[in-house]
Amino acid sequence: MTKKQKKQLFSIIIASVMLTGVYFITKMDMPWYCKALLYVLPYLTISVSVLKKAFKNLISVLDENFLMAIATVGAFALKEYPEAVFVMLFYQVGELFESIAVGKSRRSISDLMEICPEEATVLRNGEYLTVSPEEVLLDETILVKAGEKIPLDGVILKGTSSLDASKLTGESLPRDVEAGDRVVSGTVNINGVLEIRVTKLFKDSTASKILELVENTQKAKSERFITKFSKYYTPVIVLFALLLAIVPPLIWGKWSEWIHRGLIVLVVSCPCALVLSVPLSYFAGIGGASKQGILIKGAEYLEKLAKAKNIVFDKTGTLTKGSFKISNVTGDKTLYYLASAEQYSNHPVALSVKNGYKGELGEVKDIVERAGYGIEATVDGKKVICGNYKMFLDAQDKNGVYVSVDGAIIGKVEFLDEIKEDTPEAIEKIKSSGVKNTFMLTGDSLSAAQKIAEEAGIESVKAQLLPHEKVAHLEEILKTGTTVYVGDGINDAPVLVRADVGIAMGAFGTDAAIEASDVVLMNDSISKIATLLGIAKKTQSIVYTNIIFSLLVKITVLVLSAFSVVGMEAAIFADVGVLILAVLNAMRGLTVDKKR
Amino acid sequence: MKKTFKLEELDCANCAAKMERAINEIEGVENATVSYIQQRLTIEASEEAFEDILKQAQKIIKKIEPDCRIIK
Questions:
Q1: Alpha carbon distance A144, A152 (integer Å)
Q2: What is the nearest CA distance from A59 to chain B, expressed in angstroms?
């Protein structure tokens, strides 16, 4: 608890004890002013802060402190002393609870924020200096000791270690790294000393990107609705209270009775339960997801995910491992030229060539990558073209990567892409969570795509698509309902942007994907999609429950108190009780049911 | 220019909504958000007017919640 919360708790306890005492003392026979004076003690103890704010805000009449002050001072005037103290007491309990609950949920998000390193040790002129990570330049060497966070993205020059990426990915198993490996900021160096060559400035580093992403929160439709609603709610209720206190007694008399009813209505005039619990529900959902290594850019996307009708997958790297194994090679120097031409590419095929070919590489320049086709480059002075059948008029079939040197095909390399172990189960779960249609859009050949789709359990397949064709197909699917697209972000950024919700998987270090997507999965396990859909559904149902429950209770109490069926106790419940229940309900979003 | 500030002792959700509305009405503010949950204020405005806008924002915040402060 913070200092302020402790102070608040302290005054609540003191006031409760005093109230109990005063309650029994005033059972004795005594004149009314004695009772009033006695009740003033606990009342002032508990309401000093509220009265102070109310007084300061005398001008803006509709401040809830002001309304609470009116309601309770009014109750005093009507000689309803215990009631006045009770109302204030419970109001304060509610406030305290609210601030504790919000503090707790904020902390669980800040746990994620802890990925951000405060300082970096950089090697300059043979000396190690401790500087702020913002000051480190590209290609400088930084030193990361055991237990420290890696401050900037880079490549290991020297040293071996295990890295803990659990804050980023939710994956608790440490990853072993050695010289030559790429490392990302935000991961923790568990043992060993690492010297790292910086490849990205702090502002472009993974840790900064993630922070930016989490802080950039789009408001959901229901949040905007509540903000609008709250603007009108309070004035309307206050007007209602005023009318209730003035109009009926003009007709029937009994002023104090009607004023009392009006005061009760005032207690219900704060839309707090709604204004707080709706954003809090989304925030808790986003927080719960982040614990699982799922980063959501805003409440809006949780809302959309909850009503997703179509889900579209990219194939390579999303449904499949994306680390192609070389299955067949024709021609002598085919692999040599392919590996040389693609040595700087990040395309999944290029990466698997790098893994599969350990021989020497030729000198490469004039590289032109053509998304959806292949790559052109000059290797050892010769014009090399590598790519799928679309690059070559004389390709025999549609499979594999062809390699031509100085205009003649010298051979081709075929690859085998394996489905991820958890894909079929994950697709099954996604379907059972209410998504109606599953699609696959891929640039790969139809036969390869169909094989994977069948294994995965995906219904519709569109293969051999160029990036812009993927967008066109997605547009068609979008017409039929809310559509989620899942890709690895490497060459499907336009599709990620176009979808209602774009999810990028395993987005370590691919900036384009992080920027283009609405949700980022920090690791590439596809089961997380089902978890995410579960979180979205749960959050949305919490939001609806809270809205309906709060409004229903408030309206009921309003009506009943107008007819004097219920007293101020019910009004307190409608205000603070509902707030507490709504907050508790919202906090359910933080715990994620892993089975889903 | 877009800048985010921490808010200290922002204690009620409804006040945050009120602050947001009021700060958005300051001349020169393109967009402002107050997040009660994150206890953050984000202001988007031109660089020259920024200091001045920030001062006005602090005044507004103080009026709605006397204890609340912008941390620079």
A1: 10
A2: 10
The pTM (predicted TM-score) of the whole model is: 0.75
Q: Which has the closest alpha carbon to A323: A345, A295, A292, A354? A: A354
Tally of CA atoms within 13 A in the half-sphere of A572 that contains its CB: 18
Chain B nearest-CA residue for A101: B37
The closest CB to that of A106, out of B21, B37, B64, belongs to B37
How is residue A418 annotated by DSSP?
Answer: P
The catalytic site residues of A sit at 314
Structure tokens at A451: 């094989």
pLDDT in tens, chain A (596 residues): 777 788 888 888 888 888 888 888 887 787 888 888 888 888 888 888 888 777 776 655 567 778 888 888 888 888 888 888 888 888 888 788 777 777 776 676 666 556 667 788 999 988 899 988 888 999 999 999 888 889 898 999 999 988 887 777 666 678 888 888 888 888 888 888 999 999 988 887 877 777 666 665 567 788 778 877 877 888 888 888 889 889 888 888 888 888 888 888 888 877 777 887 888 888 888 888 877 888 888 888 999 999 999 999 988 778 887 777 787 888 888 888 888 888 888 777 788 888 878 788 888 888 888 877 888 888 888 888 888 887 787 777 777 888 888 888 888 888 877 888 889 999 999 999 889 999 999 877 788 888 889 988 999 999 888 878 888 999 999 999 999 999 876 677 888 888 999 998 865 546 667 777 888 887 778 888 999 999 999 999 999 999 999 889 988 988 888 887 887 778 877 887 888 888 888 888 877 655 44
Q: How far apart are CA A235 and CA A63, in angstroms?
A: 10
Residues 5-44 of B with CB under 8 A from A: 9, 11-14, 17, 21, 35-40
B60 touches chain A (CB under 8 A): no
- For A457: left if phi > 0, alpha if psi spans -120 to 50, otherwise beta; the answer is left
Nearest to A46 by CA among A93, A3, A81: A93
Interface contact flag, B64 A272, Cβ < 8 Å: no
Torsion angle of C-alpha atoms A235, A236, A238, A240, degrees rounded to 10: 160
Q: How far apart are CA A529 and CA A505, in angstroms?
A: 9
- E strands, A388-537, are 401-405, 408-416, 437-441, 460-462, 483-487, 501-505, 519-521
Closest-CA residue of chain A to B6: A215
The Cα A220–Cα A32 span in angstroms is: 53
Closest CA–CA distance from residue A17 to any residue of chain B (Å): 26
Phi/psi of residue A110, each to 5°?
-65, -25
User: How far is A474 from A371, CA to CA, in rounded Å?
Assistant: 18
The Cα A20–Cα A316 span in angstroms is: 69
Q: What are residue A160's phi and psi, to 5 degrees?
A: -130, 155
Please give the angle made by the CA atoms of A442, A444 and A448, to the nearest 5 degrees.
105
Integer Cα distance of A335 and A411 in angstroms: 9
> What's the N-to-C CA distance of chain B in angstroms?
15
